[in-house]
Amino acid sequence: MRKIWREKNLVKVIKFNPAQILSLGFLILIFIGAILLKLPISTHDNHDLSFLDALFEATSAVCVTGLVVVDTGTTFTGFGQIILLFLIQTGGLGFMTIGVIIAIFLGKNVGLKGRLIIQESLNQLSLEGMIRLVKFILIFTLLIEGIGALLLSIRWSSDFDLMTSIYYGIFHSISAFNNAGFDIMGDFQSITLYAGDFTVIFILSFLLLIGGIGYTVILDIWLKKFTGKLTLHTKLVLWMTIILIIIPTILIFFLEFNNYGTLGDLSIKNKLLGSYFHAVVPRTAGFNSLNMSELTLSTQFITMILMFIGGGSGGTAGGIKITTFAIILLAVWNLIRGNDDINIMKRRIPKDLVYRAFAITVYSIVIVLFITFILTITEKAPLNIILFEVISAFGTAGMSLGLTPDLSPVGKLAISLLMFVGRVGPLTIAFALAKKQNKRPYKYAEEKIMIG
Hints:
Elements: H1 2-13, H2 18-38, H3 51-62, H4 72-75, H5 78-93, H6 95-105, H7 112-121, H8 130-156, H9 162-177, H10 198-212, H11 215-223, H12 232-255, H13 268-280, H14 297-309, H15 322-336, E1 342-344, E2 347-349, H16 351-378, H17 383-394, H18 409-424, H19 426-433
Antiparallel strand pairs: 1-2
Helix pairs in contact: 2-3, 2-5, 2-7, 2-19, 3-5, 3-18, 5-6, 8-9, 8-10, 9-10, 10-13, 11-12, 12-13, 12-14, 14-17, 15-16, 16-17, 16-18, 17-18
């Protein structure tokens, strides 16, 4: 009887919903990563990494953000860097995706619960084809990362010895595809040395964009490459991605044209290249080819907007996602025009998706403002720098104006929490914390209030 009672209570304890399992899985992965990074073998002898710093680095890696409190290239040994790379890859793919891949290799069946967690992790609308999607993700990820690593290794073979160039190629290819933004160039310089290098910029930006638009989009393009009948989601992501590259590139080009701290000393070709890369990387990439501290306030503002928007759903990007942003724009536009329905490309957007888009955005704004308020108390920095760092953490963008290494202990914890929320998703966190609500069998009387 006692054994049966214990089993029943154990079932009650471990009966989590998919959102709770997803959140808990990321937390466990972060703490394991922090413990491994704290080991003496992970850092060079002259660097004593505190557990809080190790926790911050692990959170940034698992949440594929790229914000760091210590320099990756000079602080961590080869072992520590490989641990970071493992955390980046696992965080980018999703721990449940990794679990399903292992189960498939072992010949195990994936139950309904596992499929539900994968659906939550990849932001899918349907359970159909989950295992096929996971298999595609694995093959596609290894293929693209392998190609990126090969091309970067060939390029860097002229700058480093063979083994170093191969290692640099592998590390930065995985970091770029997963939109993590970690680099091992040293001295917090990211890839500023290659600001005018078309090969490096093109390869990295290609990896960033492919990883950031979402696996669903890639699979849809692959399956329908001959018919051309892409889904509305794919079309919307592709169009918004193009728009969010072209317009910011033009704006940054003119705003930074005469700024000798960023583009001022470069040729027209390199100015365009630098503007293009800076338009791509804020959407959760983490790399930078320009001196961030020298950006004009206008470019900082544009960067913050791009970081907040993020990339595509179901990929390695963060932010509120470009489809969420697109739906909000469409909803406002249709409201102004007096339309009840939200139509685009001869399709109607369901109203529950519109409500969800607004909920995600409002949640996100509230979280960003709350953490910004906390940091204005704990940190000695101008508001624009604090806000930039907060949005970068929430959007898992990894770009910094230099505040992160100097954060107070409270600031590090706050930014770590924000990176976690940004990676898992604000609504997923809310669903994980919320109690199960039963729908009321009745509705209250309707009454209008004045707004606007």
